[in-house]
């Protein structure tokens, strides 16, 4: 299960709070916006352009523009995703 809440969307920066259930494996994603993901709760494995990284509470993951990436949730988690520029596709969903 995925729950998203847009916390801020001002200027060229967007902050989105994402809650993911344990065992969730996202589809491979790719977008032109740069992204930084901060792990607020839980444990995840990020794969960015074929490189896997285990992240715990307090860790961050930088995702460059147009990089293929995927997240797998090992323990129920809350992630703060910061995008620049703003992801219009996420705004269009609300």
Task: List the keywords.
61% strand, mainly beta, 1 helix, Jelly Rolls, 4% helix, single chain, six-stranded antiparallel beta sheet, 94 residues
Structure description:
This protein has 94 residues and is mostly beta strands. It is 4% helix and 61% strand. The protein is built from one helix and six strands, in the order E-E-E-E-E-E-H. The chain has one helix at residues 88-91, and strands at 2-10, 13-20, 34-48, 51-55, 60-63, 69-84. A hairpin with a 2-residue loop joins strand 1 (2-10) and strand 2. The two termini are 17 Å apart. The model has no long low-confidence stretch (mean pLDDT 96).
Produce the secondary structure layout:
Blueprint: E1 2-10, E2 13-20, E3 34-48, E4 51-55, E5 60-63, E6 69-84, H1 88-91
Antiparallel strand pairs: 1-2, 2-6, 3-4, 3-5, 3-6
């Amino acid at each position: 299960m995925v729950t998203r809440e847009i916390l801020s969307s001002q200027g060229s920066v967007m902050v989105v709070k994402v809650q993911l259930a344990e065992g969730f494996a996202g589809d491979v994603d790719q977008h032109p916006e740069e992204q930084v993901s901060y792990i607020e709760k839980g444990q995840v494995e990020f794969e960015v352009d074929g490189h896997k990284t285990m992240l715990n509470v307090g860790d961050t993951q930088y995702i460059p523009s147009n990089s293929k990436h995927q997240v797998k949730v090992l323990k129920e988690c809350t992630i703060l995703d910061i995008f620049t520029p703003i992801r219009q596709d996420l705004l269009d969903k609300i």
